[in-house]
Amino acid sequence: xxxxxxxxxxxxxxxxxxxxxxxxxxxxxxxxxxxxxxxxxxxxxxxxxxxxxxxxxxxxxxxxxxxxxxxxxxxxxxxxxxxxxxxxxxxxxxxxxxxxxxxxxxxxxxxxxxxxxxxxxxxxxxxxxxxxxxxxxxxxxxxxxxxxxxxxxxxxxxxxxxxxxxxxxxxxxxxxxxxxxxxxxxxxxxxxxxxxxxxxxxxxxxxxxxxxxxxxxxxxxxxxxxxxxxxxxxxxxxxxxxxxxxxxxxxxxxxxxxxxxxxxxxxxxxxxxxxxxxxxxxx
Length: 283
Description:
GO terms for molecular function: nicotinate-nucleotide diphosphorylase (carboxylating) activity. Hexamer formed by 3 homodimers. Pfam families: QRPTase_C, QRPTase_N. It comes from Methylovirgula ligni. By secondary structure, the protein is an alpha/beta fold. It folds into 2 domains: about 10-125 and about 270-280, Aldehyde Oxidoreductase, domain 3, CATH 3.90.1170.20; about 125-270, TIM Barrel (Alpha-Beta Barrel). It has 11 helices and 12 strands. The protein has helices at about 10-25, 30-35, 55-65, 95-125, 145-155, 170-175, 180-190, 205-210, 225-235, 250-255, 265-270, and strands at about 40-45, 50, 70-75, 80, 85-95, 130-135, 165-170, 195-200, 215-220, 240-245, 260-265, 275-280. The strands form 3 sheets. A 6-stranded parallel β-sheet has the order 6-11-10-9-8-7. A 4-stranded antiparallel β-sheet has the order 3-5-1-12, with helices on one face. Helix 1 (about 10-25) packs across helix 3 and helix 6 crosses helix 7 (about 180-190). It starts with 7 loop residues before the first helix and ends with a strand.
């Protein structure tokens, strides 16, 4: 899978917002008081723990927006597996500018590398099965594009990016429509021919009712591995099957063994721990 980062037009507003939040109205009081304006240095981004790198474009853009004269050099690309103590990038130029941009760059790098690393653990756990690990819309407001990019950097795949991406009929939609079949019929009557339709079911009875309306995919919600295996057999290849709910590293291999096509995990983007990365200056 080719790893293509979001375009600059998406990244730049995120970085500008973060820098404005950090700098406030008065700028970096500490750096301005202590660091000579003409002092120059080279600092290294160093991993404190092993993991998967993601977010280097955001880090580079942070330094560029603070000071276009800074030189940012990538040692390993996004998606690379790194050991603890490895240099992943360097930045050279005015020390004051580097210090101003440091925290924002590290926040992006640590957060996205953490998502990529967590995703890679799940991907490794289902190796040998056909199931793909996918993310959800449970993302940090404003950061969806880059968090989903980090999932791809970790070897995962993306679910829909937004409400306008595809139809996903959830339990509340079904309740309002009056049933699985009616919800699917309304969806098919009101969306374009290129729009995929998926429906969430939480029982095998609902699954059978949904299949009668020929959805593109079925989301099998909070089912046990045994129930998932039975559901996959019932579907018989007529729709994509997605397992969701209660997925962890302890059970994801059993879920994958059921034969589902997709395993969606909201935890990847809303709770994955950061990967500890530091910016080291020469003594």
